[in-house]
Amino acid sequence: MESIVRSLAGGVMLPAAAAGRSRRRSEVACCCRASVRGGVSASMSTADRRQLVGGGGVDELRYGRSDDTAAVVVGEERAVATNGRAPAVGVGASSVVERLRAVAEAAADRVEMHDIIGKQRDNWNHLLLHSTNSLALAASVMAALAPASAGLIALKASAGVLLASAAVTMAVANKIQPSQLAEEQRNATRLWRQLERDVRATLELTPAPTNADVVDAMDRVLALDVAYPLPLLPGMLDKFPDAVEPTRWWPDKKQHAPIIKPSSKATNGGVRRAAIGGNGWSQELEQEMRGILRVVKAKDEKQFVSDGKLILKVNKGLAVAGPALAGTAALAAAFIGSGEAGSWASGVAVLGGSLAAVVNTVEHGCQVGMVFELCRNVAGYYRKIQEDIEANLEEADVERRENGEVFETKVALKLGRRPSDLKHFREMASPAVEDEDIKDFAGKLF
């Protein structure tokens, strides 16, 4: 009898227990779905999630696994976005990155263009040099043989035409200075490669690039385009300028980031002295930089500007002498065999053609225009070092400067020295030292 009652009781309770378990499974599944959809499951442990879906059957287990994977991926993306700094706005950050990539691609394209054009203009220099010399020397030989030849008229006419062609070719080559054009493109290629590396480093190392990075990159692009134009005509740089100035291929940073000069109170009082010593800067390092600034301005830049002026004068003389000699020889060739004038006309034509070839070889074979451009570029190199030092020294807040130790190393490398070699420039910052007393140059690289 008792067994019958127990069996009946068990039959009555089993549906209730089954219903309770079903309700619990439904509540757990709903809770799991809600937590996963709300992003809460990313913070739950793996064991807890297994307990939530463990009693819900095959369908709930599959659903829990898929949502769990999605939640983990979302959590990882959020962790990457907030790693080290606050995430930027999605659309704005993407726009900045794409603009920087566009600048990097443009810089890479400019590298290829300047490299190709540089090789082309170097070929121009060799072609014009050898062809002009061949014209002048062949004409000189014809002028020498004409008086004693039966074909006098043919030889003197040929000599005159060749000498006139040599004069025109020399004038064109002296106007455009192919060796100088090639040097411009070589330097431009190097600077465009540097810009591309800097932009790509910004993309790789900066967690969230800003619009300021884009503006700085664009300014550098425009400054390089102005300093080293691609077209030959119009837009070619003046090869014989009235004043020799260092080449400038970088933008003026003060236009976008005005430097706050320290007040007299901060400069002369304890506030300024207290500020020095942070971010790798010290009073001794400032004195080093001021001394280097003075030496670079008084010696290095001045020396290369003076050399550029001297080379420019020599190049102007050669540029005028070559076509003048060839033209004079062409006129003399027209009088060969003409009575009394014919006796000396042949000698003038031969001498003029030979000297024209010599002058052309000195000017374009020695690449005088390239040497002048090199002097301007090196002077610009030292001018940029000066502006970098001034920008840091004029910044009152040392925390806004570049790290002092890093900056000292960069300056030393640009000057071709060790950082320890810069210490003896401290005394050059003293007003008691005159510019005439400075004997050593700051740079050893050039």
Report on this structure.
It comes from Zizania palustris (Northern wild rice). This is F-box protein. The chain has 446 residues and is mainly α. The protein folds into two domains: 2-79, no CATH class; 92-247 and 257-437, no CATH class. The chain is built from 13 helices and no strands. It has helices at residues 2-37, 46-54, 57-81, 90-145, 152-176, 178-205, 211-227, 264-268, 270-275, 283-333, 341-365, 368-393, 404-415. Helix 4 packs antiparallel against helix 6 and helix 10 packs antiparallel against helix 12. The chain is elongated, with a radius of gyration of 39 Å. The protein starts with a helix and ends in a 31-residue tail after the last helix.
List keywords for this structure.
F-box protein; Chloroplast_duf; elongated; disordered N terminus; mainly alpha
Summed over residues and divided by their number, the pLDDT gives a mean of 79
Number of domains: 2
Tell me the Rg in angstroms: 39 Å
Separation of termini? 115 Å
SS strand fraction: under 5%
What ranges have pLDDT less than 50 throughout 5 or more consecutive residues? 1-89, 255-275
Give the overall form.
Answer: elongated
State the total count of DSSP E strands: 0
Order of helices and strands: HHHHHHHHHHHHH
| Residues in helix, % | over 70%
Quickly count the helices.
13
The biggest sheet, with number of strands, parallel, antiparallel or mixed sense and barrel status, is: none
